[in-house]
Design goal:
Elements: E1 6-10, H1 17-31, E2 38-42, H2 45-55, E3 61-64, H3 81-86, E4 91-94, H4 97-102, H5 107-119, E5 123-128, H6 132-136, H7 140-151, H8 157-160, E6 164-167, H9 181-199, H10 201-206, E7 209-212, H11 217-224, E8 231-234, H12 241-256
Parallel strand pairs: 1-2, 1-8, 2-3, 3-4, 4-5, 5-6, 6-7, 7-8
Bound molecules: phosphoenolpyruvate.
Phosphoenolpyruvate binds at residues 10, 12, 168, 173-174, 212-215, 233-237.
Length: 261
Amino acid sequence: MKKKPLIAGNWKMYKTASEAVALVQTIKAATHTISDVTIVVCPPFTALGKVSELLADCRIELGAQNMYSAPEGAFTGEISPTMLKDVGCRYVILGHSERRQYFREDDILIHEKVKTALKYSLVPIVCVGETLAERESRTHFDVVKTQFDESLGRLEKDDIAKVVIAYEPVWAIGTGKTATPDQAEQMHSYIRRLISERYGQEIGTKIPLLYGGSVKPDNTRSLMEKPNIDGALVGGASLKAESFAQIIQEAQAAREAGVKS
Ligand code: PEP
């Protein structure tokens, strides 16, 4: 039985608080009839408070794009899990490739962040994925295995069961190049196998696996039809209410068509 799809929008470093309010109002209006998809928006930190207020009367969930691994302390410029909970977040993206690439985040730090997020009842959306050079040198499965082992593979069973994993090939993020549904499915089924081998089949089957990398309305359906793709982490196309809503509608349509039953 396929899971209810999860579509998360990563707004990255776009939208002031007032622009975020306008965007989320339009997303709300465009998606209010959707009930079969879990929708998450991840605005920048400065917009979380205002967006949270607007989400109080709807099903759309709030997520952050990052957090620090300590609950509080002298960490100038960082944001804690308690601050995210306080403002209404349920999800937090961790280990996004842009964090790994530009802010030198490694799997050790990401593992610490994941543990802290879980301790404070946030659902971590943990990103893994290979670069173009790694795919071309055919080391992509090894790269993703190492990311999985080091950022997630030491969690207890009860904890891993609460995690969402996003496979985001770095070469497909913001480039307009999408992994083909077969390429994505191949990696998703590999990740599911890694989870099952380490934690057992029940947990392996249960964990939602999102695909991310230039997801657009016209490629959503073919990705969502794959058995091991449970949703999408959407960057660029989540910044316009129309395309984000279309992606959500495509995910719902795929489910309604029985593909996801
Ligand atoms: C992302 O930022 O996680 C992402 C997948 O971006 P895009 O959809 O723009 O490729």
